[in-house]
Amino acid sequence: MTDTDIHRAVEAVWRIESPKVIAGLARLVRDIGVAEELAQDAMVAALEQWPESGVPRNPGAWLMTTAKRRAIDLIRRNERLERKQAEIARDLESRPDAAGPDLDALDAPVSDDLLRLVFISCHPILATEARVALTLRLLGGLTTKEIARAFLVSEATVAQRIVRAKRTLSDAKVPFEMPASDELAERLASVLEVVYLIFNEGYAATAGDDWMRPALCEDALRLGRILAELAPAETEVHGLVALMEIQASRSRARVDRNGDPVLLLEQDRGRWDQVLLRRGLAALERAESIDDRRGSYCLQAAIAACHGRARTAEETDWVRISALYTALAQLTPSPIVELNRGVALSMAFGPATGLRLVDALVDEPSLKRYHLLPSVRGDLLAKVGRLDEARAEFERAAELTGNVREQALLKARAAACEQGLAPQR
């Protein structure tokens, strides 16, 4: 293999194995920042040694062995570390993997460590942006540059978020352990929120020139699948995976050849990914088999499943979708859920019915800068023949969105209203 091939191999191994290595180290050194530095030192060692020795049979275990040895050295050097860390070092010295590269022993499952790392990265003590950046860095294996490019912010901003997040966790002495039973629901909700935020930014980018950023969707799906393996008894984890799989199945149909958006009811359903769709429906069945009491993500997945099972737009069961949105509104009431419920009601019982609900949201403070409110209202106004009002709403929606592709779509719909044509949806 050439040096270039070796470098590519190291990068690929790092993307796959770094979460496990960092998780294992964090359990030993009790500091996420230090754990990541030790893991990166191991990667540098791989870049230096593998061109001569070749890629080892078990590269992930090689990285873990190398990183653990460096952790031992660090513990030995630092006399100011707490007694507990010294005990950990002595314990490590007594293990076979500390004395030599016993790769088979080091390849033992690390699911507990990974799950702890998931909960630490998404700890509620951190700001949402910090949780997202730290999760993508530690669990997604993304570089600061890749995260910055994905979210259209500067590298310096992302780096600062990550540094502050590590410092916050360290200063708060957040333990590297599973949450207590009375905290588990809140902590799990924080994890699921982060994963879905990452997915949504990829599925419908809030800013920039592209309607979608598929790489972010893939990262979120991978994190969700890992989480489902680590927490197989958690209904909402499978609900979130189901929701993301079903939504991701539509990705190819959501843009045309020019990269412009194609709305759901206008999509060519023959382009939907049937493998992802089946996986999503299976995940939903698994969630419902664990507990028939549906949480927020399970309800949203059930709504997505209604679209997924419809062979044509006309076959969509909007009455059922309306009922599911009503259940979601009762479980997690919010203006955005009400807005979506208004759309469902309009499709099930006519635009005038939906418009009445949406009109009640016009003065909602939290939706003042939310572009989908005037977009939805414009659509309903157009359907009831109030084209001048609809045009104004589409124009306002175009001003509010930061996505260039979406702006063009909304302006085109405004222009159609001006010409006396009710835009289709």
Shape: elongated
Mean pLDDT: 87
Largest sheet: 2 strands, parallel
Low-confidence stretches: 96-109
Order of helices and strands: HHHHHHHHHHHEHHHHHHHHHEH
What class would the helix/strand composition place it in? mainly alpha
Radius of gyration: 25 Å
Strand order of the largest sheet: 1-2
Fraction of residues in helix: 55-70%
How much of the sequence lies in strands comes to: under 5%
Separation of the first and last Cα atoms: 53 Å
Number of strands: 2
Number of helices: 21
Protein name: RNA polymerase sigma factor
Keywords: Coiled coil, Sigma factor, Transcription, Transcription regulation
Organism: Amycolatopsis minnesotensis
Family: Belongs to the sigma-70 factor family. ECF subfamily.
Description:
The chain has 425 residues and is an all-alpha fold. Among the domains are: 108 residues; 52 residues, Arc Repressor Mutant, subunit A, CATH 1.10.10; 129 residues, no CATH class. The chain is 69% helix and 1% strand. The protein has 21 helices and two strands. A two-stranded parallel sheet has the order 1-2. Helix 8 crosses helix 10 and helix 20 packs antiparallel against helix 21. It starts with a helix and ends in a 7-residue tail after the last helix. About 3% of the residues have low confidence.
In short:
The chain has helices spanning 3-29, 32-53, 59-77, 83-93, 96-99, 103-106, 111-121, 128-138, 144-151, 155-171, 184-203, 214-230, 235-248, 274-290, 296-309, 318-331, 335-349, 351-359, 372-383, 387-400, 404-418; strands at residues 207-208, 402-403. It has 425 residues and is mainly alpha-helical.
